[in-house]
Amino acid sequence: MSGGWFSTAVTALMPHLMIAPILLPLVTACLLLFVGERKHRTKASLSLLAVVINLAVAVGLLWSSKQSEGPSAFGVYLPGNWDVPFGIVLVLDRLSGLMLLLAAIVALMALLFALARWHKAGAHFHPLFQIQIMGLNGAFLTGDLFNLFVFFEVMLAASYGLLLHGSGPSRVKAGMQYISINLAASSLFLVGASMVYGVTGTLNMADVAARIPQVALEDRALLHAACAILAVAFLAKAAMWPLNFWLVRAYSSASAPSAAMFALLTKVGIYVLLRLSTLFFSSDAGPSSGFGSQWLIWGGMATLVFGALGMLASQRPARLAGFAVIVSSGTLMAVIGFARPELTAAALYYLPSSTMAVAAFFLLAELMDRSRMDPAVQRAPEDEEDHLPFALADLEIAKTANLDEDEEVLIGRAIPASIALLGLAFICCTVLVAGLPPLSGFIGKFAMLSALLPLQVDAPEVAVASWTFLGLVIVSGLFAMVALSRTGIRFFWAPLGRGAPLLRVAEVLPIAVLITLCVLFTVRGEAVMRYAQSTAASLYQPHGYIDAVFSVKPVPTPTNAERLGVPKPASLPEQRP
To answer: What is the spatial distance between Cα 104 and Cα 264, in angstroms, rounded to a whole number?
Structure first.
């Protein structure tokens, strides 16, 4: 994809292509509202077409951000044609391009899975799904705090509906908790943004970053308080302990495609933490340089411990996937706190791989649970909970090991294709989540640990925090392997008479694609790592982002030429009546 028609098309459409990830799902959602609820095929086709186009746009934007270096590597778009910092501004760089593509891939796979049956389980699934994509894309592209708040609210409003989709008491209970914590976080976001505006006089991220070194000493404490309040809102979304008490229950209660999308929501918090910490508190930020980094390091490690222990204490696949989200977030938060480009590059390799693995695991968890929905083979309620030790009945071994419970010979009996398929997918997810070789989860964790160790003779001594983090990453991988192996044995080795679940192509294909992409991350690991290293290097040189935003000027029009101090453009010829 190094040239040809694709290059020509993307170049011709830029910079207006940057608004497409926001407008496309918005327009699609509006159109879907006019389609009757019983016209499932029409709604599914329209929604699927929009998501496929969204993926193509994301590929184009990533390709565009990858082709340039220096200030030209940033794409800046002014939707309202107002000059910076007064108008709305969208900024595309390598990081936002990566996140847009990741969101587009997971959204397409989640929608494909939902088309098998979930999109018929309630009203307005497709409009909510499109609004969710719009909020995600907007959060990745926006260049000011106010619109970041707006897109956060759009994203959360859609997630409330998606969490409750399919109804049921467990979803309602989890939804109340989820909505309450997110409303509180949104209030803190608004308070923090207001305080930042009160101190700096702007909400444009590039402008805030440029003004922070100039903030008076007596106002700096207020600025730090504002940023700390903002951080609480982002950390709640990023699932830092103890603000993550709601996550596992909410994510494991949601329908599988919704849960796969929610794996992305946590990464929005991680994205914002990385973006703002490198932009606001870089080495150029004066006395505010490195603000909050220790909180991120130790908070991230506490989150990592909580997630690892949670995995060890869980048995249901959906809850395991929820705790895997927390482990991934804790790892990334600690890395952001270390603020080292080589470590951040490794984390940027790990981020998409872990997100796709967890999304695949959420989809797989429902298929694993499906056989338990049959009342004839349903287990006792106490066996469905996460009480330890788990059901001893599962571990009972027949006196004659080669006979099953019906006294029939086990040797030579073919494993049902659906069980074999699910087992293979489960093994791949286990390897990815635990970070075992040879897949991309191992490469990401190995790259992070390598960056922590003093590989050169003259390297500085590794700090206590680095050694602690190194040990926690290894131990969390071990805990994940133990927990997932135990669950795999229960579901695939000791099925206790469960029937083989009936699978549809639309349900298996998304899981296969997500795992295949993780395999491609392994095969093309060097190229992906080079992209991650360039992205990390750009993040730790925030002057490039700031210069790119301020270098963009509005297009002169008859109404703004005087304000911009430029000649008025030639007037249009008068139209004859």
So the answer is: 10
First to last CA, the chain: 50
Global pTM reads 0.89
Coil, helix or strand for 202?
Answer: coil
Alpha-helical runs (H) found in 390-524: 417-434, 440-452, 464-488, 505-523
What does the pLDDT read at residue 498?
A: 61
Give pLDDT, residue 519.
94
Task: Write down the pLDDT at residue 1.
Answer: 47
| pLDDT in the model for residue 371 | 61
State the pLDDT at residue 502: 74
Low-confidence ranges of the chain (pLDDT < 50): 1, 375-395, 397-398, 457, 572, 574-577
β-strands 75-77, 90-92: how paired? antiparallel
Per-residue pLDDT reduced to its tens digit, 234-271: 999 899 999 988 899 999 999 999 999 999 999 999 99
Interhelix angle 464-488/417-434, rounded to 10 degrees, is 170
Tokens of 552: 């963009």
In 10 A of CB 83, how many CB atoms?
16
Burial class of residue 465 (count of CB atoms within 10 Å of its CB; 0-12, 13-18, 19+): middle
Report helix, strand or coil for 500.
Answer: coil
Joined together, the tokens standing for residue 539 give 């993040």
Helix, strand, coil fractions of the chain, as percent rounded to 5: 70, 0, 25
HEC string of 113-175 equals HHHHCHHHCCCCHHHHHHHHHHHHHHHHHECEHHHHHHHHHHHHHHHHHHHHCCCCHHHHHHH
pLDDT recorded at residue 40: 87
515, 360 contact by CB (below 8 A): yes
Do residues 355 and 324 make contact, with C-beta atoms less than 8 angstroms apart? no
The tokens describing 420, both together, are 């074999």
| CB-count exposure of residue 486 (10 Å: 0-12, 13-18, 19+) | middle
Q: Are 291 and 328 in contact (CB under 8 A)?
A: no
